[in-house]
Design a protein that fits this description.
The complex is a heterodimer of chains A (298) and B (222). With 298 residues, chain A is an alpha/beta fold. Chain A is built from ten helices and 14 strands. Chain A has helices at residues 43-50, 72-76, 94-104, 110-119, 133-145, 163-176, 191-197, 215-221, 260-269, 281-297; strands at residues 4-14, 19-28, 32-36, 58-63, 66-68, 79-83, 151-155, 183-188, 200-205, 208-214, 223-228, 241-247, 250-255, 272-278. In chain A, β9 (200-205) and β10 form a beta hairpin. The radius of gyration of chain A is 22 Å and the shape is elongated. The two termini of chain A are 41 Å apart. By secondary structure, chain B is mainly α. In chain B, α4 (84-116) runs antiparallel to α5. Classes of the chains: A alpha/beta (298), B mainly alpha (222). Chain A binds chain B through residues 48, 51-55, 57, 69, 72-74, 76-77, 79-83, 85-90, 100-101, 103-105, 140, 144, and chain B through 2, 4-5, 8, 12, 16, 71-73, 75-76, 78-84, 86, 219-222.
Chain lengths: 298, 222
């Protein structure tokens, strides 16, 4: 049986105004998991638990087969962690940081680090404080990738970056996956980034995982139907439908698990299906979150 | 516990603190060099000596712990293969080394100066007691900085620490055992002076032990 890169079971973490509840999550080796959620959903807290920067109140956390927080130092030998709120020493140079990280990581790959320096157009003698936000992010990613980690935990790594820097970073991450033993958990509010590189997608909202599946399943399952609804026709209430909005005779139905039977049910009720549209990941995400909140408030 | 990673972190901290430690040491030596010239110079030199120890204390802890947290560099350090308790130990060791080594050297130099010059050796117990009090101040400040994220608490410790020095020095001078022996040719070590030093050293150790216990129960590290 393949060892899981990440395994969370029944993880709770309570704060005064926020609670992570019963989070269960697995990531197989060689997979990229996109972790998507609005601000305050609990993405960073979950990732911090995976780095033992925050200890869970309850539940089991295993990363690369190591129980956390007990075996955190051993686990972190093979984890590359990068977060939006991580900073380097401003007065020290990139070369100093490379030497420092190399001294603590037996798998440090100096050739790869120098390759990344060139690809990212960075100079080793540059102090961190003179770098732009994009360059700082790339320098941090360099320090993470050259450790040759088996698992990358990236918390909003592309936030605030220009499109070129985002592209460079996403390209590097994709290259990392050329080695099929490496895994990535990638959190972002930017669904385009997640859609671009992820195999698996997990939606998190208000401290709970609301849905988790592979990308193709999400895209295949969710549909938006444009309907023509004559006066006097009542649309049926179907469990697959998360939302219906109407404007005069036109109605738009958002479907969680689309099959031809759903369209047939609307037709049978007297409506005409004008168009069946695929949804973008962002639309699926928003529909999922709103539907989950509606259920929670019901 | 991985001694290797702790050593790397300690060496890194000592390198970063190098300019501050060197600068403080030079300032301390200058304050001692000033002291033998006159009565006023002795007073000024003695004051600068104490200020040097306080400056080293406050700036070292601010740079090594508080700024690291405020500037979010701690997240980077904790991404290394280090447990939070190893990180704590590394910070404790590097901070103690960076403070204790120069402060002990400066205190020994001050004693050497008193012995080697016509200045009265009766000041030796006072010099040691004040240095030990500065060490207690450092250990309490370090202990709080190791476990607390509160800027308010740290400011409070600095205020209390500085005020305590301005009470402790006159208090020591007026102690029965020191009063009247400061001008003596030889150092006079009485029980209350030694008791004061022993209590302060015990309190310093207690502060660090409490911070270790509190840290081991923490569940949030950034």
């Amino acid at each position: 049986m393949t060892e899981l890169a990440i395994q969370l079971e029944g993880v709770d973490k309570a704060y005064r105004y926020f609670q992570l509840r019963d989070v269960g999550l697995t990531l197989e080796q060689g997979q990229i998991l996109g972790f998507v959620g609005p601000n305050g959903a609990g993405k960073s807290t979950t990732i911090r638990i995976l780095m033992a920067l925050v200890h869970q109140d309850r539940g089991d956390v295993r990363v690369l087969g190591r129980a956390l927080p007990r075996e955190q130092a051993l686990a972190k030998r093979d984890i590359g962690y990068m977060s939006e709120d991580m900073r380097l020493y401003g007065v020290m140079t990139i070369a100093w940081h490379m030497k420092f990280v190399a001294s603590a990581h037996p798998h440090w790959d100096q050739d790869y680090a120098e390759t990344l320096l060139r690809r990212f157009n960075l100079r080793a003698d540059q102090p961190i404080k003179v770098l732009s936000h994009g360059e700082r992010t790339k320098a941090t990613l360099l320090l993470v990738l050259a450790r040759r980690p088996r698992l990358l935990l990236l918390d909003e790594p592309t936030t605030g970056l220009d499109p070129v820097a985002r592209h460079e970073i996403l390209r590097e991450l994709t290259d990392v996956l050329a080695d099929d033993r490496r895994s990535i958990l990638f959190s972002s509010q930017n669904t385009q980034d997640v859609e671009q590189i992820s195999d698996q997608i997990t939606f998190l909202d208000r401290g709970r995982i609301i849905e988790s599946s592979d990308k193709e399943t999400f895209v295949e399952r969710w549909r938006r139907l444009q309907l023509d609804v004559p006066l006097g026709v009542a649309l049926p209430s179907l469990p697959e439908v998360t939302e219906i909005t109407t404007s005069g005779r036109l109605a738009t139905a958002t479907i969680r698990s689309y099959t031809d039977d759903v369209a047939a049910a609307f037709t049978q009720a007297g409506a005409t299906v004008r168009e069946v549209q695929r949804m973008s990941l962002e639309e699926i995400f928003v529909a999922n979150v709103m539907s989950s909140r509606k259920e929670a408030n019901a | 516990m991985s001694h290797s990673i702790v050593r790397h972190l300690v060496v890194k901290d000592l390198r970063l603190a190098g300019p501050l430690v060197t600068g403080s040491f030079v300032l301390g030596v200058l304050s001692l060099a000033l002291s033998p010239w006159s009565g006023v110079a002795f007073f000024v030199g003695g004051s600068v000596f104490v200020v040097t120890l306080v400056l080293l204390n406050v700036m070292l802890v601010s740079m090594s712990l508080m700024n690291e947290r405020k500037d979010k560099v701690r997240v980077f350090l904790l991404s290394m293969p280090v447990s939070t308790s190893e990180y704590f130990v590394a910070k404790l060791v590097s901070s103690l080394l960076a403070y204790v080594v120069p402060s002990v050297l400066l205190t020994l130099a001050a004693i050497g100066l008193l012995v080697a010059t016509p200045l009265p050796n009766g000041f030796i117990p006072l010099t040691v007691a004040v240095s030990v009090h500065c060490l207690l101040y450092f250990c309490v400040y370090l202990a709080f900085a190791l476990v607390s994220d509160s800027q308010g608490w740290m400011t409070t410790i600095i205020v209390f620490g500085n005020v305590s020095i301005s009470f402790v020095i006159p208090g020591l001078i007026n102690m029965t055992s020191l009063n009247g022996t400061l001008g003596a040719e030889t150092a006079v070590w009485k029980a209350d002076t030694l008791g004061f030093i022993a209590i302060e050293l015990v309190l310093a150790v207690v502060a660090l032990v409490i911070s270790f216990i509190v840290n081991s129960r923490k569940t949030e590290f950034i």
